[in-house]
Protein: DNA-binding phage zinc finger domain-containing protein
Amino acid sequence: MNLSEAGRILATAISLDPKMPQPDAKGFIRGVWQKALHDVPYEDAEKAVFAHYRSDEYTRHRETISPADIVQWWNARRRPTERERSGSTGARAIPAAPFDPERLHAGVDRAVAALRAGKRVRAGSALAVAEREGVRESTARRRVLARPCGYCRAQVGEACVDGRGRKLTKSEAHPSRLVGAEVTPRARRLW
Structure:
């Protein structure tokens, strides 16, 4: 809130409450109000003044409004919107189970044993070939995604899309993008 807005808030309060102190010629009171309300938007401060003078609290006690009342009113109303904006629901996270390395290694060993038994994967040469193919595939994918697609206008790092904006299903990139990235035919099959 700037100095002129603080002056308007003060003038509004003075017009509603004859007990409010009148502003001085040097603008000291207006300056104090401006400093106290510096982060409160003018519209919210105005709403706070009207809410204060319409409240049952004011009709019972007839206390004049202060900058602290305006800030308190504003803080009470802006907190829920900040909470909503941050996505916080107020729920606490469930604590994680303690880390047990033996249990983790046993699970990995069981998974590897199941893969070997079910897919007849032999340790050694077959795993080395699969690892090389995986490296080639990820290298080819990086080279393709490192350039924009001239067909669908996908930017660098984005997957190609069809005419309706959906990701491609049979291939992850248009042929023109693959050719432009100089991906070998073997790597295209991996892709």
